[in-house]
UniProtKB/TrEMBL annotation:
Organism: Bradyrhizobium erythrophlei
The entry's keywords: NAD, Oxidoreductase
Ranges for domain 6-phosphogluconate dehydrogenase NADP-binding: 2-161
SUPFAM superfamilies: 6-phosphogluconate dehydrogenase C-terminal domain-like, NAD(P)-binding Rossmann-fold domains
KW Ribonucleoprotein (keyword) present: no
Protein name: 3-hydroxyisobutyrate dehydrogenase
The keyword Transit peptide belongs to this UniProt entry's keyword annotation: no
Domain 3-hydroxyisobutyrate dehydrogenase-like NAD-binding: 164-285
Active site per the UniProt annotation: K170
UniProt-recorded Gene Ontology molecular function terms: NAD binding; NADP binding; oxidoreductase activity
Pfam families, per the entry: NAD_binding_11 (PF14833), NAD_binding_2 (PF03446)
Signal peptide: none
Coiled-coil ranges per UniProt: none
Length: 299
């Protein structure tokens, strides 16, 4: 099948690789064309605009960083909504506000295309292996049409409601884990007087009821960084994590839901981004907390 991937950042690129390995003819577009080079070198076709990508493919997968990016890509001069959409299928896997997803999806539907949202749980590794967790919103008919492709990208797919439902669920899924990385940093800070080796400390903290399954994959990396190793390749960027927490707070406010812990964690991520860690993995928030400069204690 001819599938387009609109947005080839870390996740978009990994999803494109997965689709290519599954035998699809993949086309790509990105605001920065340089980020498409590894994919085009591997055989993907480069398109000059989102509109041309949609028109040249049967299905287009959209994977963008934030609401501002989706606004530009959908409504820009050569955006998705300027293309001949009739008969096409658009699968938007971005993590954005639910109202943004509903607005974009509704306009695509009005132009005669099918539209499914499928924000996903998982990072670049699972994306390349087709082991993401898809949180789907859309009509039953559109979801049925998209399912064969979703099944090649996801290990589990949950259709949780109409448009906007998948985005709501994705914010809820990300929230506890991202708050945990900050909480872990605080836990590590109060353990500093113990002077335990980093790998032992992480091993102890990992074998407790409060530890998420993500520590199975990230715990060893965190221990190495605590031990002095440089920050490795980002699986899920700190800047994206900050955006997701801020989006959750904004959405909570719109439905009169208070999220005080989330708001506090978002401020910590914002501080880390301002300190130059935006492109690092989100777990850098854990290792940074005890190393950052703090005001001197009052006498």
């Amino acid at each position: 099948m001819k599938i387009g991937v609109c947005g080839t950042g870390r996740m978009g690129s990994s999803i494109a690789q997965r689709l290519m390995s599954a035998g699809h003819e993949v086309g790509v577009w990105n605001r920065n064309p340089a980020k498409t080079k590894p994919l085009t070198d591997a055989g993907a076709k480069l398109f000059a605009s989102p509109a041309e990508l949609v028109e040249g493919r049967d299905v287009t997968v959209v994977m963008l960083l934030n609401d501002a990016a989706t606004e530009a890509v959908y409504r820009g001069p050569n955006g998705v909504l300027k293309s001949k959409l009739a008969g096409k299928l658009v699968i938007d896997m971005s993590t954005v506000r639910p109202d943004t997803m509903k607005s974009n999806g509704s306009e695509v539907l009005q132009r005669g295309a099918a539209f499914v949202e499928c924000p996903v749980g998982g990072s670049t590794g699972p994306a390349k292996e087709g082991k993401l967790f898809g949180l789907v919103g859309g009509s039953k008919g559109d979801v049925t049409r998209a399912m064969p492709i979703l099944e090649q990208m996801c290990r589990r797919i949950e259709h949780v409601g109409e448009l906007g439902s998948g985005s709501t669920m994705k914010l809820a899924v990300n929230l506890p884990l991202l708050v945990y990385w900050q909480a872990l940093g605080e836990a590590l800070t109060i353990c500093k007087p113990l002077n335990l080796p980093a790998d032992r400390l992480i091993d102890i903290l990992s074998d407790t009821a409060g530890t998420p399954t993500a520590m199975k994959g990230r715990g060893a990396v965190i221990a190495k960084v605590l031990g002095g190793a440089p920050l490795g390749e980002a699986a899920f960027g700190l800047n994206a994590a900050k955006k997701d927490l801020a989006t959750a707070v904004q959405f909570g406010a719109s439905i009169h839901a208070e999220l005080p812990v989330t708001a506090s964690a978002a401020a910590c991520y914002e501080e880390a981004e301002a300190a130059g860690l935006g492109d690092a993995d989100a777990t850098a928030i854990s290792t940074r907390w005890g190393q950052r400069s703090t005001p001197a204690a009052k006498s």
